[in-house]
Amino acid sequence: MKIAVINPNTTASMTATIADAARRVAHDGTEILAITSSMGPVSIEGYYDEVFAVPGLLVEIVKAEREGADAIVIACFDDTGLDAARALAGIPVIGICEAALSATSFIAQRFSVVTTMERSRLPVEHLVHRYGMGSRCKVRAADVPVLSLEDPNSNARDRLRSEISAALKDDRAEAIVLGCAGMADLTASLRQEFGVPVIDGVAAAVKQAESLVAQGLSTAKRGAYASPVHKAYGGELARFAPQAMEA
To answer: Coiled coil located at which positions (predicted)?
Structure first.
């Protein structure tokens, strides 16, 4: 089985962190294809970045499927481009936010997502409600830029720990969901430090992708996720016309 784990931003070092988290939980027979988008923002922090990350993501999805991937994981907690990706792809596509919330719902009644910036908190909060978890889950922002998580001289990890402490005390959270793929390498240490389940969306998504492939399931191709209608796209977006992407 091949699972393509795609980082929709263009920071290769973050892809390496994501790949390590995916490979730690993957079955022995699963090959993880870790992919960095070739175009778009270096990090995704808010709606504007998200929009411009989608074209590069879709290009990589088409490539991965052509190269034999059995499923796709979109490794951004905004579930960047998820609906468009499911319409385009002929294989299962999993977003790490949806995967993490689903996994956590099996093991905790109340839980909190701790994400990066305040501008990222609101999009994640909208996803929490979309996925039906609004009555069980609160979303917090540690007010740290995504790329600062990779800087050992920043105070990003201390701020993250402080926000987790607040979630456990003030939200009465029973589990913590890490709201950024760049936090994936912190899961084990945070579980040990706080003594509660800490859920990484990359790991959760990989296991759910494996399950769907093992069951022979893929995305429904009628209704919302029907394949895109062939039509002309103008200007610089001509290459993204559905018929061009399928060629």
So the answer is: none
